Amino acid sequence: MIVKSAEFICSNTQISKLPPPEKPEYAFIGRSNVGKSSLINMLTGKKGLAKTSQTPGKTQLINHFYINEQWYLVDLPGYGYARISKSKKEDWDKFIRTYLDKRESLQCVLVLIDSRHEPQKIDVEFCNWLGEKGLSFVLVFTKADKQSSIKTDQNIAKFRKALLATFEEVPQFFVTSSESKLGKDEVLGFIDEVNKG
Ligand code: GDP
């Protein structure tokens, strides 16, 4: 897929104000600082589309971007801020889980995982929750340019193994770098395929 147009539509703090669920939607989510904004900008070819390095604890927003006048790319707030209050964490949880669980136009969740790290409990638990809810998801390993491909492969293997404790089959995964554009064609190609049904 070639991204010809990518337009910011709206930021929401309320589920009731989301755009009508009339277009296929793909949600991007991950720990704060995982490289989500950079990945969205890389995929769309628009540098300032998603705001990079947002201040932790800032208002939690669901951002909708309209791609090729065909589908929505949804930027969900990051999880796992160390310095966020318990009540804010609970608000995040309720807001995002309600969105994910109830959004009828949601086709797939793209769970971003930092490829530099060994499996993190919060990421594994989030994937397990998606599985429990029967939500379709894929893994997108980020920042692959930051270490050797051997190290990346090792961390991916460990993550997949961690998921195998719960899942019979591990989901599809992509290896990406916003610096080198690695994985761009693969992720966009995947979305294209799902859109075509
Ligand atoms: P977000 O909080 O998940 O939206 O993460 P950002 O996109 O703001 O990225 C967090 C930090 O990681 C920033 O300093 C980025 O420049 C850096 N970063 C993100 N993706 C990559 C990548 O693919 N390669 C490298 N080398 N750095 C990255």
Automatic annotation (TrEMBL):
Pfam families: MMR_HSR1. The keyword Cell cycle applies. The keyword GTP-binding applies. One of its GO terms (molecular function) is metal ion binding. Its cofactor is Mg(2+). Coiled coil: none annotated. Residues 22-197 form the EngB-type G domain. One of its GO terms (biological process) is division septum assembly. It comes from the Bacteria. Keywords: Cell cycle, Cell division, GTP-binding, Magnesium, Metal-binding, Nucleotide-binding, Septation. InterPro entries: G_ENGB_dom, GTP-bd, GTP-bd_ribosome_bio_YsxC, P-loop_NTPase. PANTHER family: ENGB-TYPE G DOMAIN-CONTAINING PROTEIN, MSS1/TRME-RELATED GTP-BINDING PROTEIN. Belongs to the TRAFAC class TrmE-Era-EngA-EngB-Septin-like GTPase superfamily. EngB GTPase family. Necessary for normal cell division and for the maintenance of normal septation. This is Probable GTP-binding protein EngB. It comes from Mucilaginibacter aquatilis. The gene is engB.
